[in-house]
Amino acid sequence: MKFDTIIIGGGLSGLSAGISLVKAGQRVAVVSAGQSSLHFNSGSFELMGYDENHRPVENPLEAMKGLDEEHPYRRMGLDNVARLAPQVAPMLADAGVRMRGTAARNHWRLSPMGVMKTAWLTVEDHIALDSPDSFPWKKAAIINITGLLDFFPRFLETGLRKRGMECSLAEVTCNEIAEQRVSATEMRATNIARVLQGKALESLAAEIRQAAGDAEVIFFPSAAGLESMKNADILRELAGRPFYFIPTMSTSVSGVRCQMTLQKYFRRIGGYYMIGDVVSKGNFDGNRLLSVETRNFASDRLSADNFIFAAGSFYSHGMVATPSAIVEPVLGLDTEYRGSRPEWYNEDIFKKQPYMKFGIATDADFRAIRDGKTTENIYVAGSSLPGADSVNEGSGAGVAALTALHIAEKIK
Ligand SMILES: Cc1cc2nc3c(=O)[nH]c(=O)nc-3n(C[C@H](O)[C@H](O)[C@H](O)COP(=O)(O)OP(=O)(O)OC[C@H]3O[C@@H](n4cnc5c(N)ncnc54)[C@H](O)[C@@H]3O)c2cc1C
């Protein structure tokens, strides 16, 4: 099978590039092995949340000027970052995920631990404030689902009380959830979101209204609206007062929804999404990648003019740490890392981890390097790239989406 572009990895980065290229008229295939890091997304996308000393950043675009030259934002050019960042929320909205926020000013989101964190874009049904203390309410009801494994209201309560909010705690359920509870392992937010529809939403909302008493605002675990925002919207409407979902600690409903809606959108506009397939080998002619083999298409090679490597970092096995080296396991691309194994990580897990900045080596145009030579047609996007510490600087989704859009522009 022949495509204009084949993308290895279908997380935020692969899908952003894929959508942009299909819209430009290309025939594009995304091959994606499995879950992406979107499945654990907090409901917020980060662009540049914290400076070198972990102080919150107010203006991400301004703060990027202080980044090292090796950082993906500096390498793609800050003017390109500023130009492409406003395209991300509309792309998500077209897919069916409504997010708010701007690249010119971070807002504050509420974590499941009750801590306020900076964010670039936050899904519309989660809370987003101008400053960490600008809650417009004094009295909140934190309402949990009886038996839910992924949500810890006491942490949230402690955090909100520190910010001067009076909190009441309550639990609710409905028949559909109670049936699910027969098997305690089913009590995950994503499983509950599958049964929360139609009548179940109405009966749960009635319980919520009663449990909330005279609270001005309701905080509820993000456990509704898995395939689209529709059921989440209905529950919020039925709650009859300000109602916000709080991200849960395990697989995230809003993250899975984002992944699913982007996938569906990519297919709807004409892209090929090969889900659950794994690129296992590349066939090269010198520095040019001609085709890839996958587990499902072993005998039928997938060829393309260009390839984007968006297989993620260690978490998604885009890169692998062996005892003596960091390797890219599929195409044999060169990697960028420093030192020997003991120098890759800090034993204090709360300190900066050197391995966070490791990635696939590229030239200035994000073309991968293999055996010391620049490849002609393999581009690297997203968290596979070196130079960003997404945890400490809060830049994960920004690097993923914006490097992908930048590369798509290059190969359109
Ligand atoms: C657990 C977790 C939570 C995070 N939460 C947030 C958050 O809340 N906000 C934020 O801004 N950032 C967050 N991040 C940072 C995150 O890295 C980025 O936000 C971004 O989603 C990364 O996207 P990506 O497409 O580069 O990589 P990934 O999301 O890792 O996607 C890579 C994809 O490639 C596939 N793949 C790998 N190898 C192959 C192969 N050989 N063949 C085919 N497919 C392959 C994988 O299965 C996966 O689907 C989080 C990261 C992690 C690990």
Summarize the structure.
The chain has two domains: 2-100 and 257-411, 3-Layer(bba) Sandwich (FAD/NAD(P)-binding domain), CATH 3.50.50.60; 127-246, Rossmann fold. 29% of the residues lie in helices and 24% in strands. The protein has helices at residues 12-23, 60-63, 72-76, 78-84, 88-95, 153-162, 175-180, 189-195, 199-212, 230-239, 253-268, 390-393, 396-411; strands at residues 2-8, 28-32, 44-45, 99-100, 107-110, 116-119, 121-123, 128-129, 139-145, 166-172, 217-221, 243-246, 272-275, 279-285, 288-294, 302-309, 320-321, 326-327, 335-336, 359-360, 367-370, 373-380.
Model description:
29% of the residues lie in helices and 24% in strands. Strand 14 and strand 15 (288-294) form a beta hairpin. It has helices spanning 12-23, 60-63, 72-76, 78-84, 88-95, 153-162, 175-180, 189-195, 199-212, 230-239, 253-268, 390-393, 396-411, and strands at residues 2-8, 28-32, 44-45, 99-100, 107-110, 116-119, 121-123, 128-129, 139-145, 166-172, 217-221, 243-246, 272-275, 279-285, 288-294, 302-309, 320-321, 326-327, 335-336, 359-360, 367-370, 373-380. By secondary structure, it is an alpha/beta fold. It folds into two domains: 2-100 and 257-411, FAD/NAD(P)-binding domain, CATH 3.50.50.60; 127-246, Rossmann fold, CATH 3.40.50. It contains 13 helices and 22 strands. Strands 1, 2, 13, 14, 15, 16, 21 and 22 form an eight-stranded mixed β-sheet that branches. Strands 10-9-11-12 form a four-stranded parallel β-sheet, sandwiched between helices. A three-stranded antiparallel β-sheet has the order 3-7-4. Residues 8-14, 31-34, 36-38, 40-42, 44-46, 278-279, 310-312, 315-318, 330, 382-383, 390, 396-397, 400 line the site of flavin-adenine dinucleotide.
